[in-house]
Design brief:
alpha/beta, 10 strands
Amino acid sequence: MARITFGMGTSHSQLLSTPHEEFAGHAARDRKNPHIKDWNGLVREKAAWIGRELTYEVTLARHQASQAALERLSMALAEAAPDVLVIVGDDQGEWFSPDNISALCIYWGASVENLPPPIEQVSRRSSYWGYYGDGTNREFPVDAELGYHLLDSLTIEHGFDVAQIRAQPRNGPFGHAWSFVHQRIMRDRVVPIVPLLLNCYFPPNQPPARRCYQLGQAIRRSVEGWGGDKKVGVVGSGGLSHFLVDEELDRAVLKALEARDVDALARLPREQLNSGNSEIRNWIVAAGAAEHLSIEVVDYIPTYRSEAGSGIGLGFALWQ
């Protein structure tokens, strides 16, 4: 039978593909971020300690650590050599409008195109390559058979209401949650994927944490009921905390994942899983699917970018 033999959690921030020499420019952009409220109050709150997090030596070391973690994930994927990857990510206006978005959707066309936007239209051009390579449109294989099987079995056997896409929308690029995995982790060793789109960002139909874990468990059961003898991997793409770094939240999530503590995950306050933090849901789905495997937190790198504490908790984990 088919089986899940590999899992991965990875941040996919633009910061991961931005040269360190451009790090300082993020603070000015963060100041204009509408998701960050009371900038001056945050600066006062963190004044006693934030300075040490923003020194050249600290930010360079964390940049280097994040690149090393990505290299480790890429090597682990190559060694595991799954036949297909189910990649759990969230669409942020690439295919869906926030006004018209399903809680859960599976794409099961035969392939997907990157459809990179013109680089002139992108605000952060130095990180463009991390999602779209050199800007050439590329076609990536999709395991449509597994996609259909998941769509059918999750709906009929496991009680999830799953929307479907079989024809790729042409109104925007392929989602950054998936293209990052292709560009920065798969690289030239392309593996067929099944894109699973989970609504993390846009209220009110965001799946709760416990339901996300149950979805992962159902994915594993569905894979095991699929014919053939394929090795399947599952990836949670995105996170951890952002647009403000929340080390307490990130460490609590990682601790609960390591302990397979579903109740602790379910107790996470809903208001903490909004905005950028919401992509933690993608990791929780991956954890449910790979709960029979051993987890290793490869690295956790709280990366502050301003005196207000803006930035991202970069996380990288493997289930093997």
